[in-house]
Specification:
This protein has about 450 residues and is an alpha/beta fold. It has 17 helices and 14 strands. It folds into 2 domains: about 190 residues, Rossmann fold; about 200 residues, 2-Layer Sandwich (Nucleotidyltransferase, domain 5), CATH 3.30.420.240. Bound molecules: adenosine-5'-triphosphate (ATP) and magnesium ion. Adenosine-5'-triphosphate binds next to α3.
Length: about 450
């Protein structure tokens, strides 16, 4: 058989040994083989990396001068993800008698064509690479550094593919999405054959159950659901976490009487060092089982002595009858000494570490970011009343943003406090203590609730 003349459908069937079940993926595959710029936005597990890996190998076969460069959000991600698929595909080609050499980090066909993995952390020059058929492929493109973007602008590859989960309307991925020079491909998990037919037609790809689970834990209005299931960029007020409208609604929200059945009081305790780094304590009330949350009080103390601050914490706990297990504190920094002193006094309050891995560590860079989104989610659902909260809290909330650069894995990450400072804004201690308070009172539900 002459594999060069096979159509994409025949090629995948005869070389890779399977049908391309999903028509839009097949359309994309065919278009990519002809070159051009492609921006691929999609849900998790729909087959983006898989398809791109097939395109890379097919491209190598199709053009006698093909030079394929492929990268991802990190070298590990690359080698464990799309590069593995590519190697397997190249092996299949070899098994059919095509003269491909498959090395651990290089795949070549004769002297003039190759597929080469590139580490995103090591700027490389594409300058030495000359060919009519250069392909630059970026998988997990939401976490790709700017040097690749610059390199792309300087050269003009025959084929450019950038594929990503559209978590943040920022960065290179978003730019390609908005650029009319790119052909856009969007893959929603809801359209995937596995999900539509509620059968595992394509093994290991997204399933109906996966989608249901995400819907349950995130809700259909959440940015995580919009990005990771619908494959679309969540509409955001820039990088802001909390919109003015959402905050205004929360300030006006009066919790209905019906929700007054069960109540639980909890406190979020953000410990500071004193001397301008204050400690903040927020008391929240939960009504029903996660039906509503309402603001009770927030106090700020600027004592340099842990013991003095803790005396205030204990006063608040006694005043509202709050049990130690319903008090949550960030254990990093000043928090360590604070929690030890509380425990020594017999108040076994709980701790969580803001910089730990999030429960949903596919979406969030750390616990703090995940908690900031928990606040966003109760605001969006209009079940958090902030009536009576101090203006300083609203000021901190309106300023809080998601970082432009995200993290190396393309996950959501809060703007670092250093950058906030550079923008002339104070440390968001009041918001931190609100985030802690919400987690302290929220009853276990989906992925939202965990004590670190
Ligand atoms: N056409 C296909 N035929 C057979 N298996 C497939 C096909 N497409 C995808 N798969 C399977 O589905 C799994 C998920 O696909 P893939 O890794 O490409 O998803 P993705 O869209 O890149 O998701 P993520 O955003 O999580 O990286 C793959 O491991 C592969 O086993
Ligand atoms: Mg992938």
């Amino acid at each position: 058989m002459n594999i060069v003349t096979l159509s994409p459908r025949q090629f995948t069937a005869q070389v890779f040994g399977h049908e391309l079940y999903w028509k839009p993926m097949l359309d994309m595959y065919e278009a990519m083989l002809e070159g051009g710029r492609h921006s691929v936005s999609g849900a998790n597990g729909v087959g983006k990396s898989w398809t791109i890996a097939e395109v890379a190998v097919h491209y190598l076969v199709k053009y006698p001068d093909a030079l394929v460069l492929i990268t991802s959000s990190s070298f590990d991600q690359l080698m464990n993800g799309v590069w593995r698929y590519i190697s397997k595909n190249a092996e299949r080609l070899r098994a059919l008698g095509v003269p491909v050499r498959v090395g651990a980090r290089h795949i070549s066909m004769g002297r003039d064509r190759f597929i080469h993995p590139i580490s995103p952390s090591k700027p490389e020059s594409f300058a030495g690479i000359h060919s009519e058929h250069v392909a630059v492929i970026v998988d997990e493109g939401s976490g790709v550094p700017s040097w690749i973007e610059e390199t792309l602008e300087g050269n003009n590859p025959h084929l450019v593919i950038i594929s990503y989960n559209p978590l943040r309307p920022a960065g290179y991925a978003y730019k390609s999405f908005c650029d009319p020079g790119y052909t856009k491909w969007t893959f929603s998990a809801l359209d995937h054959p596995n999900v539509k037919q509620r059968k595992r037609l394509i093994p290991r790809a997204v399933t109906y159950e996966d989608v249901q689970r995400k819907l349950q834990s995130w809700g259909e209005a959440s940015p995580a659901y919009i990005a990771r299931v619908l494959g679309q960029f969540p509409e955001a007020a820039g990088n802001r976490l909390y919109t003015a409208t959402a905050l205004e609604n929360a300030r006006r929200l009066i919790v209905p009487d019906v929700a007054a059945t069960t109540v639980l009081l909890g406190m979020g305790y953000d410990a500071g060092f004193g001397g301008g780094d204050p400690s903040d304590m927020t008391v929240l009330r939960m009504h029903g089982k996660n039906e509503y949350f309402s603001f009770v009080s927030q106090e700020e103390f600027d004592y340099a002595k842990i013991a003095l601050t803790n005396t205030q914490a204990i006063r608040i706990m006694k005043h509202h009858n709050i049990l130690p297990r319903h008090v949550l504190l960030d254990k990093t920094g000043a928090g360590i000494g604070t929690i030890q002193d509380m425990h020594a006094r017999g108040y076994k309050i709980r701790g969580v570490n803001f910089s730990n891995t999030a429960r949903d560590d596919d979406s969030y860079s750390d616990v703090a970011t995940e908690m900031a989104y928990e606040v966003q989610s109760v605001l969006d659902e209009q079940i958090l009343s902030l009536a009576g909260a101090p203006q300083e809290l609203f000021d901190e909330m309106i300023a809080r943003q998601i970082d432009d650069d995200g993290d190396r894995k393309g996950r959501l990450k809060l703007e670092p406090k250093k950058k906030l400072k550079a923008r002339g804004l104070p440390s968001p201690n009041r918001l931190d203590s609100l985030m802690l308070a919400l987690r302290a009172v929220k009853k276990k539900s989906g992925v939202n609730y965990v004590f670190g």
